[in-house]
Amino acid sequence: MKIAFIGLGNMGGGMAANLVKAGHAVNAFDLSGDALARAAEHGCAVFETVPDAVAGVDAVVTMLPNGQIVRSVYTQEVFGNTPEGALLLDCSTIDLATAREVVELARGEGYEMADAPVSGGIAAANGGTLTFMVGGSDAVFERARTVLEPMAKAVIHAGDTGAGQVAKMCNNMLLAIHMIGTCEALALAEKAGLDPQTFYEISSKATGYCWSLNDYTPMPGVGASSPADNGYEGGFASALMLKDLRLAMAGAETSGATVPMGEHATRIYEAFVEAGNGGKDFGAIFTTL
Ligand code: NAD
């Protein structure tokens, strides 16, 4: 297939490279010259405008920072310049309301489109092991799967339009909550006189079992290895967790859901990021306790 890839940053760069490896012809566009230079090294054809990049393609994939940019790229540059019948896939993590609106606008322009956000960080993007959560009809999902598989460990049909973004925001809100809870439990265990490693051995096999404790233990030298063992460098930045929590709070407002723990987690990450810790792994909340 011929695929236009727009937004070749930390995530999109590796994703586009995996499409090239799978034998697709990939047309790349990004506002950053550095990102385009890296895309060229990975075998993408690089273009200076979106209309040039999308001309003659079978599919467009976007991996952009936020909903406002996604809306403007699609409405001002992709629609009308992309051939009729091409599939549009937005893999960015954006707010639910914008995701649904852009798909609706795409339909009005005669395109099939799906929201397809990902779980997995830069290593998974480079390694082709992302999990995609796809929102769209059965027919759109089947088309999307073919495009997404070379970049994926799993491609999951979440439901209709917007369901991919719903899955992503619920997953990451839950992740923030159990990460904070895990940090609190480890700190409490230690302060109350229980060896944290012994607490890990017990709770990771008891009902405290969760990914943050079992697989990404946020206390240095305890449990599973994680960015905690490396000064909280690398991993999943607290600023990105805060972005996802804010999207979840917006989604809760849009859908009328009550999320007191999600709100609390958002406040905790807000304070942590405002204190200058946005670049630290999200498990570094442990250091505040
Ligand atoms: P990034 O900032 O590294 O990349 C975004 C790219 O988009 C940049 O290269 C930027 O130049 C480009 N861009 C911005 N505006 C543009 C425009 N108008 N036209 C063309 N290109 C434009 O961000 P990232 O970490 O790659 O994240 C991308 C998306 O993936 C975000 O929605 C993020 O929430 C999501 N995500 C990130 C991670 C992660 O671990 N980094 C994990 C899962 C999902």
TrEMBL record:
Its EC number is 1.1.1.31. Pathway: Amino-acid degradation; L-valine degradation. The keyword Transmembrane does not apply. GO terms for molecular function: 3-hydroxyisobutyrate dehydrogenase activity. Residues 2-159 form the 6-phosphogluconate dehydrogenase NADP-binding domain. The keyword Plastid does not apply. It is an enzyme of class 1 (oxidoreductase). Residues 162-286 form the 3-hydroxyisobutyrate dehydrogenase-like NAD-binding domain. Keywords: Branched-chain amino acid catabolism, NAD, Oxidoreductase. It catalyses: 3-hydroxy-2-methylpropanoate + NAD(+) = 2-methyl-3-oxopropanoate + NADH + H(+). Coiled coil: none annotated. InterPro entries: 3-OH-isobutyrate_DH-rel_CS, 6-PGluconate_DH-like_C_sf, 6PGD_dom2, 6PGDH_NADP-bd, HIBADH, HIBADH-like_NADP-bd, HIBADH-related, NAD(P)-bd_dom_sf. PANTHER family: 3-HYDROXYISOBUTYRATE DEHYDROGENASE, MITOCHONDRIAL (PTHR22981:SF7), 3-HYDROXYISOBUTYRATE DEHYDROGENASE-RELATED (PTHR22981). Belongs to the HIBADH-related family. This is 3-hydroxyisobutyrate dehydrogenase. The lineage of its organism: Bacteria, Pseudomonadati, Pseudomonadota, Alphaproteobacteria, Sphingomonadales. The gene is mmsB.
